[in-house]
Design goal:
Number of strands of chain B: 14
Distance between the termini of chain B: 43 Å
Radius of gyration of chain B: 19 Å
Largest sheet of chain A: 8 strands, parallel
Largest interface: A-B, 33 and 29 residues
Distance between the termini of chain A: 49 Å
Strand content of chain A: 5-15%
Number of helices of chain B: 12
Largest sheet of chain B: 7 strands, mixed
Oligomer: heterodimer
Shape of chain A: globular
Radius of gyration of chain A: 24 Å
Number of strands of chain A: 15
Structural class of chain A: alpha/beta
């Protein structure tokens, strides 16, 4: 709740954006997957968390504006609008089709263009380098109208080749437009190749600083960093802000990522099921800081962050629900300033409903309680408090428990289910093998229920067990001793990722076989598969390509 | 200068009208481009600083900011010299303003050859052609300073993008203050006639009236003269009626003879009532510098004088008569 972003729900929505965008592009046979994917988190954070807007009333007079200057990100933009509720996601199949509202590049909505534009689109893009000027005009109109609303604008890095962008860059500080916030989608690739080859932009940060902007630089795929940057931007007075979001073009599909060839190309429709499988296969590594040497949590968090952990798993034990005692909310509160990485607080405590405020106050991003520790009424109280504070809610079940039936009606408010694969209370226990099939059947059950959240495997997850729980459907992988008992945290996390990636690639190859596109897939995916070839047993096959 | 004739300048009329309308309609805003003194929009800025933005020598930015203001609900006037908008900002005008049909009014001055001393770089003679080819764009060319406020009021009241072209020099006043019949999509018959119709716009309207006078006096030829201030939408009915009633048409414009008023009139005739249309304009060439005292000579050199109009009317009359006999 550091930023009230309900992290896991947001992450899932962004995944839905990618899924819908790639479906549309694949159906259309053309479009720009690269740009759609590099900006997915930026647009997701804006539309799902930040913008004052109303999908049911797109012209609401009190709304904030989003101007998408990089119009070729249309599929991602449309998918974002669809997931946000502006139009049905099924319509994505009409992308770029004759008579469709989903034109190749976004068209500002108006009555006269209602058959060619979508309610909610504020600007006709397609020609590059214009959106920032338009955003300035909008900001000026807001000032005249005494409106306090924000104007957010998304710029592609390639489009800043255009001189007009720098005309606009000069203008916004003149008018002290502190409600104007630009994102630079710095994926470093444009149509003809890498930006620094086509027309060097670096030092890009210095350029914007020289133009008198407030400049914030982040990893544009990290939801928590986008949230923090926007938080900071809100506090700046009398200056416009640009958030230089370092991104990877095509991020989300490995063989498209950072590859200029995928700037404006649609995937072969036969590969679509595999691409969707890859997107659904997205996972998180969550180091648990109680493992390894006692205490020194700060150091562990910092190391885990440097090693590329996705979230930080915090095992809270009260010495009552579990025999051991670790730390409580006060410690989390002290640790909070160290990192922006989402805090995944796993409460192994009795009577969590009595203490839930402390964990909300400690700014956890995910709060998980054990279903063994509360009844329905207590759960509802916890749920309301957690969700209303923009925190992801989780439930955890012990190895011998199953999810109680009373919880089923609440599944749509639950973002994560932790399945304990050891008995909670001590680190360093051995993985209980039966848990794999438990996860698999739970996963099947949850899919039938339409569950949108994640399954988290916790306990004894290491290089030898990670593949089976991933295969069974766990997408948050808590790693304690496997990471922190290791002197080299970096390589421990890399090894976990490697093992998980091998499993994902194996599943994709199986799917390729099912779809009779093994060779096509191997060709498209070759550079990703080479480092995994030995474990996948495809060295010979790759050599023959 | 003839002392009987009143002269007035279109730019001042524009600036004053903007102030007048702006004090009533708070949605009117104005964006300038380091030419606000020259365009006379500075007055608006002095009166309403919160609705006036001088964004410097950056025309693409100028028109796009105007677009943003229009998206924000404003009636956005963007003004600078004609030389620097239609060509330089065609992309922004087309994609950002016209496609979404935004309420942006591009009012430019210094159109045509009569920019004078600044030379061909500043003599905008292709704008009517460029602007009228964009869907949703409406194109207006007032013929004197009295018509300007009336037409500005019209374009404020009409939703959507406009391009209005004004001249630099003070020019002869044609209209009476009480003339009020200006509507987008219409022309004004300033002089009736039965032998031929002269359709003109801008500063060429006065010259056409002069030529018509002379033709009547010297040759007994009766020319109808139409001020076609609305180039797009154009007054099709008035043109067809003229073609039917006078048989042939001569067009006169301070613009390349390709693509402007003459082409627009010819298109109507081709579609609806084929007849002889002779276009008088700059013959697809660039202009040159001339001092203010030489403006009439400059126009004459490029074929835009009363004498040239008269010569063409006589020529066309001969052709038609020859054909008839």
């Amino acid at each position: 709740m550091k930023f009230g972003m309900r992290y896991l729900d947001l992450r899932e929505k962004v995944r839905q954006v990618r899924i819908n965008a790639i479906k549309g592009i694949s159906e259309a046979g053309s479009g720009h997957p690269g740009a759609s994917f590099s900006a997915a988190e930026i647009m997701g954070v804006l539309y799902f968390r930040i913008l004052k807007h109303n999908p049911l009333d797109p012209e609401w007079s009190e709304r904030d504006y989003f101007i998408n200057s990089k119009g070729h990100s249309a599929p991602g933009y449309y998918a974002t609008l669809a997931v946000a509720g502006y139009f049905p996601t099924e319509e994505m199949k009409d992308l770029r089709k004759l008579g469709s509202r989903l034109q190749g590049h976004p068209v500002m909505y108006s009555k006269y263009l209602e058959n060619h534009s979508l309610p909610g689109v504020e600007f006709s893009a397609g020609s590059e380098g214009i959106g920032l000027s338009v955003s300035i005009g909008l900001s000026l109109a807001n000032i005249i109208n005494n409106r306090n609303n924000y104007v957010y604008v998304l710029l592609g890095d390639g489009e800043t080749n255009e001189g007009q962008v720098w005309e606009a860059a000069m203008t916004a500080p003149k008018y002290k437009l502190d409600k104007l916030i630009a994102f630079l989608d710095r994926n470093s690739i444009q149509q003809d190749g890498f930006t620094e080859d086509v027309m060097p932009l670096n030092p890009v940060r210095d350029k914007w600083l020289a133009f008198n902007w407030n400049v914030i630089e982040i990893n544009g795929h990290k939801l928590e960093q986008i949230m923090e940057a926007l938080n900071k931007a809100n506090q700046v007075k009398d200056k416009p802000t640009i958030i230089i979001a370092n991104t990877i073009k095509g991020n989300g599909i490995k063989h498209m990522a950072n590859n200029p060839k995928w700037h404006g190309k649609a995937p072969n429709p036969k590969q679509l099921p595999l691409l969707l499988e890859e997107l659904v296969g997205d996972y998180m590594i969550a180091p648990s800081i109680i493992a390894g040497k006692k205490e020194n949590y700060e150091e562990k968090i910092k190391k885990a962050e440097r090693a590329g952990a996705d979230i930080i798993h915090l095992d809270v034990m009260d010495g009552k629900f579990v025999p051991n005692r670790t730390f409580l909310a006060d410690t989390i509160k002290k640790l909070r300033p160290i990192t922006n990485l989402p805090f995944d607080a796993h409460l192994m405590i009795e009577k969590p409903h009595l203490y839930i405020d402390d964990y909300i106050d400690a700014a956890c991003d995910i709060i998980t309680i054990h279903t063994e520790t509360c009844n329905k009424e207590q759960f509802m109280l916890i749920r309301d408090k957690v969700l209303s504070n923009g925190i992801s809610l989780g439930i955890a079940i012990n190895p011998e428990s199953n999810i109680p039936s009373w919880i089923i009606p609440f599944l749509n408010s639950i973002d994560v289910i932790i399945v304990m694969s050891v008995h909670p209370g001590f680190s360093g226990q051995k993985f209980i093998p039966e848990i794999t099939s438990k996860i698999a059947s739970l996963n099947k059950f949850l899919q039938i229920q339409g569950f949108k959240g994640y399954i988290e495997a916790d306990g004894g997850i290491d290089a030898s067990t990670v593949q089976q729980v991933y295969d069974a459907g766990a997408r948050i992988l808590v790693a304690g001793s496997a990471v922190f008992s290791n002197n080299d945290i970096n390589s421990a996390i890399i090894q976990l990722r490697h093992k998980t990636n091998v499993t994902l690639e194996r599943n994709l190859l199986r799917k390729a076989d099912e779809n009779n596109i093994r060779k096509d897939w191997l060709i498209a995916r070759k550079h990703i598969l080479i480092p995994l070839a030995n474990e996948l047993g495809i060295e010979g096959e790759l050599n023959e390509l | 200068m003839n002392s009987d004739i009143k002269y007035a300048d279109m730019r001042s009329a524009y600036g004053n009208t903007l102030v007048e309308l702006g004090s009533v309609n708070k949605d009117i805003v104005c964006v300038g481009s380091d030419t606000t003194d020259s365009l006379k929009t500075k007055k608006f800025g002095d009166k309403f600083p919160e609705r006036f933005f001088n964004i410097g020598i950056a025309e693409a930015n100028l028109v796009s900011i105007a677009a943003g203001l229009a998206i924000g609900g404003k009636i956005a006037f963007a003004s600078t010299y004609a030389a620097f908008l239609p060509g330089r900002c065609l992309d922004q005008i087309r994609n950002t303003i016209c496609y979404p049909d935004l309420n942006v009014k591009l009012v430019v001055s210094h159109a045509g050859l009569t920019v004078g001393p600044d030379g061909a770089s500043h003599q905008q003679i292709e704008d009517l052609s460029i602007m009228r080819s964009i869907p949703n764009m409406k194109v207006i060319t007032p013929s004197d300073a009295v018509a300007v406020p009336k037409l500005i009021k019209n374009i404020v009241e009409t939703q959507g993008p406009f391009y209005m072209r004004l001249a630099r020099p003070s020019s002869e006043v044609i209209y009476d203050e009480n003339d009020s019949d200006f509507k987008i999509g219409q022309g004004n018959i300033l002089r009736d006639g039965s032998d031929m119709t002269i359709i003109s716009c801008g500063l060429m309207v006065y010259k056409s009236l002069q030529a018509a006078n002379n033709l009547k006096k010297d040759y007994g030829i009766s020319c109808r003269v139409i001020d076609c201030y609305s180039i797009k939408p154009i007054d099709r009915n008035m043109i067809i009626k003229a073609a039917k009633e006078t048989g042939s048409i001569i067009t006169v414009e301070e613009h390349n003879y390709i693509g402007g008023l003459g082409s627009a009139v010819a298109e109507v005739c081709c579609d609806e009532y084929p007849c002889h249309v002779k276009r008088i304009g700059i013959m697809d060439t660039f202009g040159e510098s001339a001092r203010d005292s030489e403006l009439d000579l400059l126009l004459e050199k490029y074929g835009l004088s009363e004498k040239e109009i008269e010569r063409n009317v006589l020529n066309l009359t001969r052709i038609i008569n020859g054909n008839l006999s």
